[in-house]
Amino acid sequence: MALKSTIFRAALNVSDIDRGHYADHVLTVARHPSETNERMMTRVLAFALYSGQAQEPLEFGKGLSSDDEPALWERDLTGRITQWIEVGLPDEKLLRRACGRSDVVTLLAYGGGRTVDMWWQANRDALQRQEKLTVRAVSSTS
To answer: Are 78 and 47 contacting, i.e. CB atoms less than 8 angstroms apart?
Structure first.
């Protein structure tokens, strides 16, 4: 029997003084059995960082259970993907495919120690050609 996702609820208050964006969000986040708490919280961080910039509400994707959906995305009223937000250290092919499907792609890369640096060195040449892609490193303090 397959394990089910664990459901978390969070109240998030976003105050972006620079953009004049203030909002309260009640989030329901499903954590896949193979997803770490660090990845789940990075998805919540992505929501907090990018919710004020979105024209339409951001939605959590299916995540680890689907390669066709990001960790977080914004779609317009026609269903077109306007913003694709991924977290972790995904395969560069997934990011290239996302750039073909979305107007903007953002990656919040995280990992322990020098993991992000090593991932970037291995994928830099392929990813720097993607004009729609922005990669941001998120450091963790343990």
So the answer is: no
3-state secondary structure of 76: coil
Q: Return phi, psi of residue 107, to 5°.
A: -120, 125
Rounding to the nearest 10 degrees, give the CA dihedral for residues 106, 100, 112, 118: -120
Contacts of 39 (CB under 8 A, 6+ apart): 71, 87, 88, 110
Closest by CA position to 41, among listed 108, 114, 129: 108
Going by C-alpha positions, the residue among 59, 54, 44, 7 that lies closest to residue 28 is 7
Q: Which residue has the tokens 């120690």?
A: 113
Per-residue pLDDT tens digits for 27-86 = 999 998 888 999 999 999 999 999 888 788 899 987 666 678 899 999 999 999 999 999
Residue 7 near residue 35, CB atoms below 8 Å:
no
d(CA 90, CA 95): 7
- Do 28 and 44 touch, CB atoms closer than 8 A? no
Mode of pairing for the β-strands spanning 21-31 and 81-87:
unpaired
Contact, 82 vs 56, CB < 8 A? yes
